[in-house]
Amino acid sequence: MRTVSRKSERLVNLVIALLATKRYITKSEIFRTIEGYEGSNESMERMFERDKDELRALGIEIEVSGLDPLFDDEVGYRILAENFEMDRKGFSANEIAYMSLAAQLWKDASLSDVSQKALRKLSAVSGPADIAEIPAFAPVILTAPLFLREIINGITDRRVVEFKYLDSEMKTKLRKVHVYSYFSLRGFWYFSGLDVDKSENRTFRCDRVVGELAISKKANSYEIPADYEPDTTFSDISVSTQAVLRVRVGRGSQLRSLASTIESGEEFDLIQIAYSSEEEMISLILWHLDDVCVISPETLKISVVQVLKRLVKAHV
Amino acid sequence: MSRQIPDSQVIRLLDLVPYLILNQGVALDQIARDFQITKSDVLDDLNTLWMCGLPGYTPLELIDLSFDTGFVSIRNAEVLSNPRKLTSIEMGAIIIGLCILRDSFSAVDSQVQGLENLIERLSKKSNVKAPAILSAVVTAELRSAVNTAIATKKDLIISYHSFSRDEVSKREITPFTIAHDGTFEYLESFCQLAQDFRSFRLDRILSAALIEKTESQAPSSEPKEDSRVDVQVRITSNSRRVVETFHLNNAGEIHQGDVFNSSVYNPEWIIRTICSLKSWAEVVQPPELRSQVGTRAQRALDMYV
After folding, report:
1. B34/A contact by beta carbon, under 8 A
2. How far apart, in whole angstroms, are the C-alpha atoms of residue A310 and residue B281?
3. CB-based contact (8 Å) between B79 and chain A?
């Protein structure tokens, strides 16, 4: 445990020194003055390189100077306060309070741990606020996937995400995606962007991702098109067909609610319904069994009859 | 549904300093709770921090901590006194939360514009995108009532807006499951009013209340438990819809020809579900149910002769 702490100690000391300095400090100054750098020059160099990488991986930006080829000055380093600290001046007390409330919504949901950290930081800059009461419970958050953080990281740093996805034929294929956008619709979370292997924009439903979602180490590996809008309709509404169905009186409330016209009859009503997906229409008709009968179009009728014949054959 | 990713100690130490400055005299237990770590981790952190400071590392430059009484105070840590900036994931969580808050106000509310403005500023500054859409068509109260009813096998009283008849009816229903057709969510139920199976569009249920069954009634031999039917279903065609309809978790490992077991609330539901799944799945067991599917499909087929 103590060795881990020694390293943490050195890293914290490095951060403090780089943050406190008003000018860039050189490697030799760092080795001379910062506690924890010891051994040969070579091993200190290696140690410093690793420390620098580690701090950057933790999201701490280290500025580098002296890269001017005309001067062979030694390279210098520093951390700018504005890149390290939270900007407290940019926000009103009410805004900070709203941000805290927003973080609190994640209680028990997929981003609750990061929200907890955000809250801790916000509490250090919050002041008295006067904001409206809001509902403390947000169902949309409860269905958020665990890998939402990878999605957000992917979009923010433009890292490629990789995951296994269950297609409609139940095959899982490895997908590589440049994520452009994410959203939640009717209880499901989605992300969309460029499917690298297909070279086409696609939308993925989060619960159809099988297992983990991995994100590439390399950042800035793609651009998000400025005019990108995710397709959130999932169907081609421009192509719609009219079906005429006989529906038993008092039955088929779901079909009736979709109907454009209903003509009452004695045992059966005649309803007209517009649909864009034949797949879904067939399923809906079959759900109602002998309460519904397709009159037209012929193709729909044939499909339904075929399925029914197969069902009968399969269940003798 | 929460996942804990252990922070590196460095991040924790950097976050601990502004926290301690803000909460002078805070108890060790409280720190452990706030940082979700053990008390011995807290002590280890404080002992490490104790050795940190500005180059020189004389008492004048080191962070001055006192915690031997069980309460922590800190001095001489000005360099780290401000909280670190939010990470992109923290920002993401806040932006999504703000979008939800914005949507919870009515459109005319003056707060909406302020929040919209804040979301835009945060997003621009941090490069973290806001979700393109966030829609929760169903209120939290309704979803919670429905979920409770399904989980505890209780009935619901709902008021339902039937669009075709343009009327609101009060119904007593036994809900089984929430189905999803890609566009809307439906509550598959048995409706006492209609004495038949009905699917209710979740977004058209105006209100739902649980009916508390009185325990004082004659002791029944767990009727709800008995009414469940164990079925065996064979997947006859690789279709994701089968997997999603039956909430099969091992989606990646299930294939055409496989048989799975499912416990369904009511035979009527399984008959209709199997039929609506076209011929992607068939009932294997029990035999009565299997032949019922055949009979019902035949009856539907008779409509076309």
Report:
1. yes
2. 11
3. yes
CATH architecture for the domain at A148-215: Roll (2.30)
Q: DSSP string of A253-265?
A: HHHHHHEEEEE--
Evaluate if pTM is beyond 0.95.
no
In a mutational test of the B interface, the residue from A28, A151, A170 whose CB has the highest number of chain B CBs within 10 Å is: A170
| Interface touch B53/A16, C-beta < 8 Å | yes
Which tokens in the block code for residue B72? Answer: 């922590």
Tens of pLDDT, residue by residue over A20-39, are: 998 889 888 899 988 888 88
Q: What are phi and psi of A120, to 5 degrees?
A: -60, -45
CATH architecture group of domain B140-211: Roll (2.30)
CA distance B225 to chain A (A): 25
Radius of gyration of chain B (CA): 29
How close B219 gets to chain A, by Cα (Å)? Answer: 35
Domain boundaries, chain A: 2-84, 93-140, 148-215, 241-314
Domain boundaries A2-84, corresponding CATH code = 1.10.10
> What tokens were used for A252?
């088929």
The reply to whether residue B14 touches residue A87, judged by beta carbons under 8 angstroms, is no
What φ, ψ does residue A210 adopt, rounded to 5°? -95, 115
Do the interacting molecules here have an ipTM over 0.90?
no
Whether omega for the bond prior to residue A297 falls within 30 degrees of 0, making it cis, is yes
Is residue A309 a contact partner of residue B304, using CB atoms and an 8 Å limit?
A: no
Q: Which residues of chain B have pLDDT under 70?
A: 1-7, 104-109, 135-137, 140, 162-167, 180-184, 213-228, 249-252, 265-266
Q: Token digits for B87?
A: 């990470």
Please answer yes or no on whether B128 and A139 come within 8 Å at the CB atom: no
Length of chain B equals 305
Q: Which residues of B touch A211 (CB under 8 A)?
A: 252
Around Cβ A200, how many Cβ atoms within 10 Å? Answer: 8
CB-based contact A315 B297, cutoff 8 Å:
yes
Options 1.10.238, 1.10.150, 2.60.40, 1.10.10; CATH for B9-80 is: 1.10.10
CB A152 within 8 A of CB B89: yes
Distance from CA of B224 to the nearest CA of A (A): 24
Do the beta carbons of residue B52 and residue A87 sit within 8 Å? Answer: no
Q: What kind and span of H or E run contains A55?
A: helix A41-57
Tell me if B97 and A282 make a contact (CB, 8 A cut-off).
no
